[in-house]
């Protein structure tokens, strides 16, 4: 195995991926397989920060559409991300990876509070850091939280794990003639309205020159390939 391309990455996972093939909750087998892949990347010397969504339990936007107060719904969604972060921490530590969960919403009994300098120190010591609780602010998605944490800890790439192998000009699940971009600019993603990440997250990465790599998580070994610099997915830069 060659040297890793990236020294430090911020990996963004959706909450739904932890549910496996189920519509709700956490699939232990799927979490275990993810932890195995991530631990192999960490063993290769890559420093890994993780942001995981909470959509397998609760999605604030959807709840707000059903007449729940949006701020309340978003806070519930943020708490869901902490459940997922703890599940990932447990699975990673069973793989022998020292892992810390840090949350933007204080809950001292279950996780460390997010302190930027402490998070960087954990990464420097080879610990995987899982950032839970979003940004702690309503109206911001976990995509934006991932961009923010990636910038704060000086990640070299924001790796967005999805169901598809990159960014397409239209939904490849609905259009057989959809075309994949091997690379695309931030501005073109925003101008075309491509729904790969929230516009605020893309704009934040653009303004601070943090590359985004969109790749297919459902292909075994892709996290390692991405870390090694192999051509998987689409680079937004």
Q: What's the shape?
A: globular
How many strands? 11
The mean pLDDT is: 93
Largest pleated sheet? 9 strands, mixed
Q: Give me the CATH fold name.
A: Carbamate kinase
Short description:
With 237 residues, the chain is α/β, with parallel strands linked by helices. It has one domain (8-236): Acetylglutamate kinase-like (Carbamate kinase, 3-Layer(aba) Sandwich), CATH 3.40.1160.10. It has eight helices and eleven strands.
Q: Would you mind describing this structure in some detail?
A:
Strand 1 (8-13), helix 1 and strand 2 form a beta-alpha-beta unit. It is built from eight helices and eleven strands. The chain has a nine-stranded mixed sheet, with helices on both faces. A two-stranded antiparallel ribbon has the order 7-8. The relative contact order is 0.16. Helix 5 (142-152) packs parallel to helix 7 and helix 6 (186-192) packs antiparallel against helix 7. The chain starts with 7 loop residues before the first strand and ends with a strand. The mean pLDDT is 93. Helix content is 38%, strand content 19%. The chain has helices at residues 28-43, 60-65, 70-94, 116-124, 142-152, 186-192, 199-208, 222-228; strands at residues 8-13, 47-52, 99-103, 112-113, 128-132, 157-162, 167-168, 180-181, 183-184, 212-216, 234-236. It has 237 residues and is α/β, with parallel strands linked by helices. It has one domain: Acetylglutamate kinase-like (Carbamate kinase, 3-Layer(aba) Sandwich), CATH 3.40.1160.
């Amino acid at each position: 195995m060659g040297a890793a391309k990236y020294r430090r990455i911020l990996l963004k996972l959706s909450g739904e991926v932890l549910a496996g093939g189920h519509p709700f909750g956490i699939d232990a087998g799927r979490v275990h397989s993810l932890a195995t892949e991530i631990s192999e990347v960490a063993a290769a010397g890559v420093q890994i920060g993780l942001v995981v969504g909470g959509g397998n339990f609760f999605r604030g936007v959807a709840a707000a559409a059903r007449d729940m107060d949006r701020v309340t719904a978003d806070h519930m969604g943020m708490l869901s991300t902490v459940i997922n972060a703890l599940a990932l921490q447990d699975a990673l530590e069973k793989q022998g990876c020292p892992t810390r969960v840090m949350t933007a919403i204080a809950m001292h009994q279950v996780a460390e509070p997010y302190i930027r300098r402490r998070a960087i120190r954990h990464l420097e010591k080879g610990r995987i850091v899982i950032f839970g609780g979003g940004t702690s602010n309503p109206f911001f998605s976990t995509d934006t939280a991932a961009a923010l944490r990636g910038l704060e800890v000086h990640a070299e790439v924001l790796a967005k794990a999805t169901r598809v192998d990159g960014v397409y000009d239209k939904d490849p699940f609905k259009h057989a003639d959809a075309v994949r971009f091997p690379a695309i600019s931030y501005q073109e993603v925003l101008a075309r309205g491509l729904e790969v990440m929230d516009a605020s997250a893309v704009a934040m990465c653009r303004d601070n020159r943090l590359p985004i790599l969109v790749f297919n998580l459902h292909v075994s070994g892709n996290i390692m390939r991405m870390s090694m610099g192999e051509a998987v997915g689409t680079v937004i830069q």
